[in-house]
Amino acid sequence: MADWRDTSFPKITCHDVLRTGVTAFIAWALGMGNYALMAWLVYDQPVVFEHDFYSACIWSAIALALTVVLFYLPAMVLLRHVLNGYKPLRMFLYLGIAIGILPVAMIVLYWSHSLREMFSHEAFLFYCMFGVVGLIMGLGFAVKRELPHQAQGQAVYKD
Predict the structure, then answer these.
(1) I need a surface site. Which of 37, 98, 102, 154 has the fewest CB within 10 A?
(2) What is the 3-state secondary structure (H, E, C) of 70-136?
(3) Distances (CA, A) of 75 to 82, 83, 139, 141, 142
(4) Does residue 154 lie in a domain region?
(5) Region 104-122: what's the mean pLDDT?
(6) How many domains does the chain have?
(7) Per residue in 9-19, pLDDT tens?
(8) How confident is the model at residue 98 (pLDDT cuts 50, 70, 90)?
(9) How confident is the model at residue 104 (pLDDT cuts 50, 70, 90)?
(10) Enclosing domain of residue 117
(11) Is residue 7 part of a domain?
Protein backbone atom coordinates (compact mmCIF):
# COMPACT_ATOMS: atom_id res chain seq x y z
CA MET A 1 0.00 0.00 0.00
CA ALA A 2 1.15 3.50 -0.71
CA ASP A 3 1.89 5.89 2.10
CA TRP A 4 -1.33 7.79 2.88
CA ARG A 5 0.72 10.94 3.50
CA ASP A 6 1.91 10.98 -0.11
CA THR A 7 0.07 14.01 -1.52
CA SER A 8 1.33 13.76 -5.09
CA PHE A 9 -1.35 12.62 -7.49
CA PRO A 10 -0.22 9.61 -9.53
CA LYS A 11 0.54 10.16 -13.18
CA ILE A 12 -2.07 9.31 -15.77
CA THR A 13 -0.28 7.71 -18.67
CA CYS A 14 -1.23 7.70 -22.34
CA HIS A 15 -1.81 3.97 -21.98
CA ASP A 16 -4.32 4.65 -19.17
CA VAL A 17 -6.22 7.13 -21.33
CA LEU A 18 -6.30 4.87 -24.39
CA ARG A 19 -7.31 1.78 -22.42
CA THR A 20 -10.00 3.72 -20.57
CA GLY A 21 -11.41 5.17 -23.80
CA VAL A 22 -11.68 1.77 -25.48
CA THR A 23 -13.09 0.22 -22.32
CA ALA A 24 -15.65 3.04 -22.01
CA PHE A 25 -16.95 2.44 -25.53
CA ILE A 26 -17.26 -1.31 -24.96
CA ALA A 27 -18.84 -0.73 -21.54
CA TRP A 28 -21.35 1.74 -23.00
CA ALA A 29 -22.39 -0.72 -25.73
CA LEU A 30 -22.84 -3.53 -23.19
CA GLY A 31 -24.67 -1.14 -20.88
CA MET A 32 -27.12 -0.17 -23.62
CA GLY A 33 -27.72 -3.85 -24.27
CA ASN A 34 -28.43 -4.31 -20.57
CA TYR A 35 -30.79 -1.30 -20.66
CA ALA A 36 -32.79 -2.93 -23.47
CA LEU A 37 -32.74 -6.34 -21.78
CA MET A 38 -33.94 -5.00 -18.43
CA ALA A 39 -36.72 -2.99 -20.10
CA TRP A 40 -37.91 -6.20 -21.70
CA LEU A 41 -37.45 -8.54 -18.70
CA VAL A 42 -38.62 -6.30 -15.85
CA TYR A 43 -41.21 -4.05 -17.51
CA ASP A 44 -42.21 -6.28 -20.45
CA GLN A 45 -41.48 -3.39 -22.80
CA PRO A 46 -39.34 -4.40 -25.74
CA VAL A 47 -37.12 -1.55 -26.82
CA VAL A 48 -38.22 -0.03 -30.09
CA PHE A 49 -35.38 1.65 -31.90
CA GLU A 50 -37.08 5.01 -32.15
CA HIS A 51 -36.77 8.39 -30.51
CA ASP A 52 -36.79 7.22 -26.87
CA PHE A 53 -34.04 4.66 -27.33
CA TYR A 54 -31.94 7.03 -29.44
CA SER A 55 -32.38 9.70 -26.79
CA ALA A 56 -31.25 7.24 -24.11
CA CYS A 57 -28.22 6.37 -26.25
CA ILE A 58 -27.22 9.99 -26.77
CA TRP A 59 -27.72 11.17 -23.20
CA SER A 60 -26.06 8.13 -21.68
CA ALA A 61 -23.06 8.57 -23.99
CA ILE A 62 -22.75 12.24 -23.01
CA ALA A 63 -23.06 11.43 -19.30
CA LEU A 64 -20.55 8.60 -19.60
CA ALA A 65 -18.04 10.74 -21.50
CA LEU A 66 -18.16 13.39 -18.78
CA THR A 67 -18.01 10.80 -16.01
CA VAL A 68 -15.06 8.96 -17.56
CA VAL A 69 -12.99 12.13 -17.81
CA LEU A 70 -14.01 13.65 -14.48
CA PHE A 71 -14.41 10.60 -12.25
CA TYR A 72 -13.58 7.14 -13.62
CA LEU A 73 -10.05 7.75 -14.88
CA PRO A 74 -8.80 9.85 -11.92
CA ALA A 75 -10.46 7.56 -9.36
CA MET A 76 -9.11 4.37 -10.91
CA VAL A 77 -5.59 5.79 -11.18
CA LEU A 78 -5.77 6.99 -7.58
CA LEU A 79 -7.02 3.59 -6.39
CA ARG A 80 -4.20 1.87 -8.28
CA HIS A 81 -1.77 4.23 -6.54
CA VAL A 82 -3.26 3.67 -3.08
CA LEU A 83 -3.31 -0.12 -3.50
CA ASN A 84 0.14 -0.01 -5.11
CA GLY A 85 -1.12 -2.16 -7.96
CA TYR A 86 -4.24 -3.90 -9.14
CA LYS A 87 -5.02 -6.21 -6.23
CA PRO A 88 -7.56 -6.81 -4.87
CA LEU A 89 -9.46 -6.69 -8.15
CA ARG A 90 -12.84 -6.40 -6.43
CA MET A 91 -11.97 -2.89 -5.22
CA PHE A 92 -11.87 -1.67 -8.84
CA LEU A 93 -15.22 -3.34 -9.51
CA TYR A 94 -16.83 -1.78 -6.43
CA LEU A 95 -15.44 1.64 -7.28
CA GLY A 96 -16.63 1.38 -10.89
CA ILE A 97 -20.15 0.43 -9.85
CA ALA A 98 -20.26 3.18 -7.19
CA ILE A 99 -19.19 5.81 -9.71
CA GLY A 100 -21.99 4.52 -11.99
CA ILE A 101 -24.48 6.38 -9.80
CA LEU A 102 -23.10 9.72 -10.97
CA PRO A 103 -24.21 9.59 -14.62
CA VAL A 104 -27.69 8.49 -13.54
CA ALA A 105 -27.88 11.47 -11.21
CA MET A 106 -26.65 13.76 -14.00
CA ILE A 107 -29.31 12.52 -16.43
CA VAL A 108 -32.20 12.42 -13.97
CA LEU A 109 -31.51 15.78 -12.36
CA TYR A 110 -30.96 17.46 -15.73
CA TRP A 111 -34.33 16.32 -17.06
CA SER A 112 -36.53 16.30 -13.96
CA HIS A 113 -34.98 18.66 -11.38
CA SER A 114 -36.38 16.35 -8.70
CA LEU A 115 -34.64 13.94 -6.35
CA ARG A 116 -37.80 11.82 -6.28
CA GLU A 117 -37.17 10.82 -9.88
CA MET A 118 -33.93 9.13 -8.76
CA PHE A 119 -36.15 6.17 -7.79
CA SER A 120 -38.36 6.02 -10.88
CA HIS A 121 -38.66 3.14 -13.34
CA GLU A 122 -36.60 5.00 -15.92
CA ALA A 123 -33.88 5.67 -13.36
CA PHE A 124 -33.85 1.95 -12.50
CA LEU A 125 -33.07 1.14 -16.14
CA PHE A 126 -30.22 3.64 -16.09
CA TYR A 127 -28.92 2.21 -12.78
CA CYS A 128 -28.86 -1.23 -14.40
CA MET A 129 -27.12 0.19 -17.43
CA PHE A 130 -24.47 2.12 -15.54
CA GLY A 131 -23.99 -0.72 -13.06
CA VAL A 132 -22.83 -2.85 -15.99
CA VAL A 133 -20.80 0.07 -17.33
CA GLY A 134 -19.11 0.51 -13.94
CA LEU A 135 -18.38 -3.19 -13.66
CA ILE A 136 -16.77 -3.24 -17.12
CA MET A 137 -14.87 0.01 -16.45
CA GLY A 138 -13.42 -1.34 -13.21
CA LEU A 139 -12.54 -4.67 -14.76
CA GLY A 140 -11.13 -3.08 -17.91
CA PHE A 141 -8.90 -0.76 -15.94
CA ALA A 142 -7.64 -3.32 -13.45
CA VAL A 143 -6.87 -6.20 -15.77
CA LYS A 144 -3.23 -5.89 -16.70
CA ARG A 145 -2.51 -6.55 -20.32
CA GLU A 146 0.99 -7.93 -20.26
CA LEU A 147 2.57 -9.78 -23.13
CA PRO A 148 3.86 -13.26 -22.23
CA HIS A 149 7.51 -12.19 -22.48
CA GLN A 150 6.84 -9.19 -20.21
CA ALA A 151 5.17 -11.33 -17.57
CA GLN A 152 8.23 -13.58 -17.41
CA GLY A 153 10.60 -10.62 -17.03
CA GLN A 154 12.36 -11.14 -20.36
CA ALA A 155 13.66 -8.29 -22.44
CA VAL A 156 11.43 -7.07 -25.23
CA TYR A 157 14.26 -6.32 -27.67
CA LYS A 158 17.33 -8.46 -28.10
CA ASP A 159 20.62 -7.21 -29.50
Answers:
(1) 154
(2) HHHHHHHHHHHHHHCCCCCHHHHHHHHHHHCHHHHHHHHHHHHCCHHHHHCHHHHHHHHHHHHHHHH
(3) 10, 12, 14, 11, 12
(4) no
(5) 83
(6) 1
(7) 777 778 778 88
(8) very high
(9) confident
(10) 14-144
(11) no
